[in-house]
Design goal:
The chain is α/β, with parallel strands linked by helices. The protein has 2 domains: 191 residues, Rossmann fold (3-Layer(aba) Sandwich); 216 residues, Rossmann fold (3-Layer(aba) Sandwich), CATH 3.40.50. The protein has 15 helices and 19 strands. The protein has an 8-stranded mixed β-sheet with strand order 12-11-8-13-16-17-18-19, with helices on both faces. Strands 2-1-3-4-5 form a 5-stranded parallel β-sheet, with helices on both faces. It has a two-stranded antiparallel ribbon with strand order 6-7. Strand 16, helix 14 and strand 17 form a beta-alpha-beta unit. Helix 1 packs across helix 10, helix 5 crosses helix 7 and helix 11 crosses helix 15. The structure holds ligand PMT. Ligand PMT binds next to helix 11, helix 13 and strand 16.
Length: 420
């Protein structure tokens, strides 16, 4: 998909998530304050309602008038402002918010927030609100790396405050390193991701992820390079869409997204049992796992010794037996859920995906070229072709997190089509 189309698709998802959401944008003193103007524009493009609160320091970098014009609302400046208190005072403002986003968040503001101070309007709002709070730190790299700032940020995260970034790169002062505020587009997307998409309200989604391990003996196994990143990102997107989500995970070292019911398995047969049980009561089944097609026919009780090997010294033969095909078994159920597979291919990617779609009786298959560098197994990015019986669509390389959102949108669309 060309970049502008990809952006359009991302925007559609985010638009739904931010539509009519009340966002307080807190702007604190730092050179990145000028980016607040673009951020407001993007949030409003996503149909969010934006009210701006500026600290004294922020006003040195950008004028309230600019942000007022862009947000379409008066900018709130002081805690004790008789005019504001007569209209929307600080407690009303705190209650109005669905999200308080502070961008840029200076080191000083972060320290005051950590200490629970209420000595200006923005810190007071943060104490008075029950809405989620997200901060986008922006400061010099040395200030960011300072152990006190790091401790403050850790404490804020422990309290449930979300950190967006910071990014890394050349800074206004000429230094290079971490501490740059994320770009407005990233911040608007991350803000959108804090709200459920509502795509899958009342739906149950089961996702398999990661590799399986097929034991040869007590210390050896056959497996593959799947990290679980794609499946876990899909689970996050399903949860964001409001789905009751079950994540059946092979052996991976990832934390499950909050809200997912996680079932850990090792082998293909364990994954099969867990998946078939969960699929009996779900609306959508997504098979992201890289399941081993074969397992050793015999599992040795003890570590296989070289010298006791009945084969020759130079070669060893391990007999393999076919594992059950999990996604095909789910799709063969009489009460089959909407079933989505993945196709990991190294050649004729889309042709082979079409073949699997038909052969396994799937409703959709997502084909990826696992021979291409930087995508597929164990990378943070992926590029895929989504294939369904009536069509197909290519999605260019993007982060698995972003891709998962787009894929869940495709799945929602086709699911609705098949079930309407
Ligand atoms: O985990 P990551 O590091 O993020 O990498 C992601 C990924 C590359 C693993 C993922 O994008 C992917 O392609 N997953 C499918 C891997 C795979 O096994 O593909 P396949 O073409 O061999 O299998 C086709 C489909 O059948 C898959 O949905 C697979 O889950 C399913 N299958 C396969 C064999 C089997 N015994 N049971 C199955 O359910």
């Amino acid at each position: 998909m060309p970049i502008n189309l990809l952006y359009q698709a991302i925007l559609t998802v985010s638009k739904a998530q931010l539509s009519n959401k009340h966002i307080i944008l807190g702007v604190t003193g730092g050179i990145a304050a000028y980016k607040a103007a673009e951020l407001i524009r993007l949030l409003r493009q996503h149909n969010a309602q934006v009210r701006v609160v500026m600290t004294q320091g922020a006003r040195e970098f950008i004028t309230p008038l600019t942000l007022q014009a862009l947000s379409g609302n008066p900018v709130h400046l002081d805690l004790l402002d008789p005019e504001a208190e007569a209209g929307m005072g600080h407690i009303e403002l705190a209650k109005w918010a669905d999200l308080i986003l502070i961008a840029p968040a200076s080191a000083n503001f972060i320290a005051r927030l950590t200490n629970g101070q209420a000595d200006d309007l923005l810190t007071t709002l943060c104490l008075a609100t029950i809405a989620p709070i997200a901060i986008a730190p922006a400061m010099n790299q040395a200030m960011w790396l300072n152990s006190q700032t790091q401790r403050n940020c850790q404490q804020l995260q422990d309290k449930g405050i979300t950190l967006f970034g910071p990014g890394s790169g050349t800074q206004a002062c000429g230094d290079v390193g971490p501490g740059r505020m994320l770009e407005p587009l990233e911040l608007s997307e991350l803000s959108a991701a804090l709200f459920p998409t509502g795509l899958f309200s009342d739906k149950k989604i089961v996702i398999t992820a990661g590799p399986t391990r097929e034991a040869i003996d007590p210390v050896r196994y056959i497996s593959n390079h799947s990290s679980g990143k794609m499946g876990f990102a899909l689970a996050q997107a399903a949860i964001d869409g409001g789905a009751q989500t079950t994540l059946i995970a092979g052996p991976v070292s990832l934390e499950a997204p909050e809200g997912a019911a996680r079932i850990d398995v090792i082998s293909a047969r364990q994954m099969y049992d867990a998946a078939l049980t969960a699929a009996a009561d779900c609306d959508i089944f997504i098979a992201t796992a890289a399941v081993a097609d074969y397992r050793p026919t015999k599992l040795a009780d003890q570590k296989i010794k070289k010298d006791r090997n009945p084969n020759t010294q130079d070669t060893m033969v391990i007999e393999l037996s076919l594992n059950p095909d999990i996604v095909a078994a789910v799709a063969a159920r009489p009460d089959k859920p909407f079933t989505v597979g993945f196709a990991a291919e190294t050649q004729q990617v889309v042709d082979y995906a079409h073949d699997k779609l038909t052969r396994k009786n799937l409703d959709m298959i997502i084909a990826n070229d696992v021979s291409a560098a930087g995508i597929g197994f164990n990378s943070d990015d992926n590029a895929v072709t989504v294939v369904w019986p009536q069509g197909q669509q290519q999605i260019e390389k993007t982060s698995k997190r972003q891709l998962a959102k787009l894929l869940m949108e495709h799945i929602a669309k086709q699911y609705q089509r098949t079930n309407s």
